[in-house]
Amino acid sequence: MKSITVRYFAMFREHAGLSEETLRLDVATARDVFEQTRARHGSDEPEGHCKVAINDELADWSSPVQDGDTILLFPPVAGG
Amino acid sequence: MIEITPGPIEPASLRASLADDGAGGFCTFEGWVRNRNEGRTVRRLEYEAYAPVAIAEGERVIAEANQRFPFLGARCVHRTGTLEIGELAVWVGVTAAHRDEAFKACRYIIDEIKTRLPIWKKEHYVDGDSGWVNCERCAAHAAE
B131: left (phi > 0), else alpha (psi -120 to 50), else beta? Predict the structure, then answer.
């Protein structure tokens, strides 16, 4: 189990009802964190529309996560 | 250089900051808040950004534009917070020796910024409904 801080933005924050939480999770990759928190908060937005960052660096869904990491979950972006 | 700001964008001072005796062309793009989207009447927009990642990724976009279309100077500013119809949401300006690089770099920067930076837009409609743009399920939830 790893201690992971998950931060939610925009739609994800509204779905979760909070902007950040620290969880004990059995996860290996950013994708695992996304899937476990998605199940936890009832969102079904496809991964392909979303982005992820680990400790403020954009990452791939297959990127490994370490104990103590902060995972930023970005729903579909719409700048401009 | 790219900035994310909650305050109004000032095109005149941005333009002045790019002044360059070697520039033969200056191209800008201004993104304005429009009153309609996908058939619905929009009352105002709310922009949210995660600045640490948005700025790092924005600087990468500008560096890529400079490699592809060598320019002299480039700046981009994106608003956050609540914006009314007609307000300036994003400003991109590029100077180059010739117009071709200025046009192309400006186009590259705005196109990439729209799809790569962690910036989100929530539309508030005249009927009181609201929805996050580019997120169908979210719009469906908001309409429930």
Answer: beta
Q: Which domain holds residue A61?
A: 2-74
Which domain covers residue B83, as residue numbers?
2-143
pTM of the model: 0.93
* pLDDT tens sequence across B105-131: 999 999 999 999 999 999 999 999 999
Residues in chain A whose Cβ is within 8 Å of chain B: 9-11, 14, 43-45, 49, 51, 53, 56-58, 72, 74-80
pLDDT digits (tens, 9 = 90+) for A27-60: 999 999 999 998 888 777 888 889 999 999 999 9
- Shortest Cα distance, chain B CAs vs residue A32, angstroms: 21
Edge-to-edge strands, sheet with B88-96: B2-5, B73-79, B88-96, B25-32
ipTM comes to: 0.94
The reply to whether residue B119 touches residue A53, judged by beta carbons under 8 angstroms, is: no
Question: Min CA distance, A13 vs chain B (Å)?
Answer: 12
How many domains does one find in chain B?
A: 1
Which DSSP string do the residues of B82-119 spell out, in sequence order?
EEETT-EEEEEEEEESSHHHHHHHHHHHHHHHHHHS-E
Q: What is the CATH number of the domain that holds B63?
A: 3.90.1170.40
Closest residue in A to B47 (Cα–Cα): A79
